[in-house]
Amino acid sequence: VRATSEAEPLRAYAPSMGQIFLRRFQLVTQFRSALETGQVSIHYQPKVALPSRQVVGAEALVRWKHPEFGRVDPDEFVPAVEATGLVDVLTDFVMDKALDRVRRWIDRGLRMSIAVNLSVRTLADEEFPDRVAAALLKHAVPPELLTFELTESGVMADPERALPVLRRLHTMGVVLAVDDFGTGYSSLAYLRQLPVDEVKIDKSFVLGMGTDLGDMAVVRSIVELGHSLSLTVVAEGVEDDAARDQLVSMGCDVAQGYLISRPLSEERFEAWLRARTVQVRGARDETVLTL
Ligand code: C2E
Ligand code: MG
Ligand code: MG
Ligand code: MG
After folding, report:
1. Given ligand 1 and candidates 43, 73, 117, 201, which is best to mutate, with the most ligand atoms within 8 Å of its CB?
2. Band of the pLDDT at 1, cuts 50, 70, 90?
3. Whose CA is nearest to atom 21 of ligand 1?
4. Cα R_g (the chain), whole angstroms
5. Contact of 178 with 198, CB cutoff 8 Å
6. Looking at residues 185-197, what average pLDDT do you find?
7. Which residue intervals define the domain EAL in the entry (predicted)?
């Protein structure tokens, strides 16, 4: 429908093409050792059901604390890494950490799912479903507690190769979500052909909903479309009560955003969870989470 517009941060000076190229080159060549030396970590952002506010899971978002550049955003280094063969290493790293987390939650009686973002390259890798099966087995996590988020453009880049991979993942019982929905160019009819279970409304529409009637209309129609295709509808970028209330009135199923929590380090996310856990008397398996 339209492209996401992220505001550019103010800069004292604009870096030259040479500087941009050099930095990108450094990020790509240093990525593997960054993984090995603990510079790369996963942050977790909760997803809550509407209107109950029960915590249903979290999205795993990668973070890189670079010794020279400081914090490097995934929007910068993921595309750079993606252009090389290294993105598999990233995906496997995130999946392994994420499933280890889910296993720990299960051991405490918490049934929460984890969402991992997939890049275009991974969708074209016919061996990926085997690695997913091995990772689920290794951590003894049931497939329905793992969600993969893929973008429309990721699927549309090479549907011939992506579709068989998606079908295999879906057959295994893994949950598939279309991320940033509404920003791509694929037709809504195409969504029907994809083996997906969930749509995530792009945050640009959710953020604009309070001030822009057009954004409001887009959000409403994605909720309706999603439900008419029996999909779970998730809104990202929920920053205030007004947006949450609007989404509840539209019947949106799940909310994610700064209103609920920013993405948190593993330790801080666990503390956040503990503060919201209500143990149901005598039923270890029925731990209830509320905001
Ligand atoms: P995404 O998957 O659409 O993730 C949502 C982004 O929105 C995250 O940015 C998150 O921090 C941000 N966000 C969450 N709630 C709010 C809110 O209420 N307001 C606003 N303004 N923003 C919010 P982040 O962490 O910088 O990640 C950016 C993108 O990088 C992700 O977009 C995803 O496409 C990609 N990414 C992150 N981790 C991975 C990964 O492990 N693998 C791959 N392939 N891509 C990743
Ligand atoms: Mg995502
Ligand atoms: Mg998104
Ligand atoms: Mg995004």
Report:
1. 117
2. very low
3. 237
4. 19
5. yes
6. 78
7. 24-277
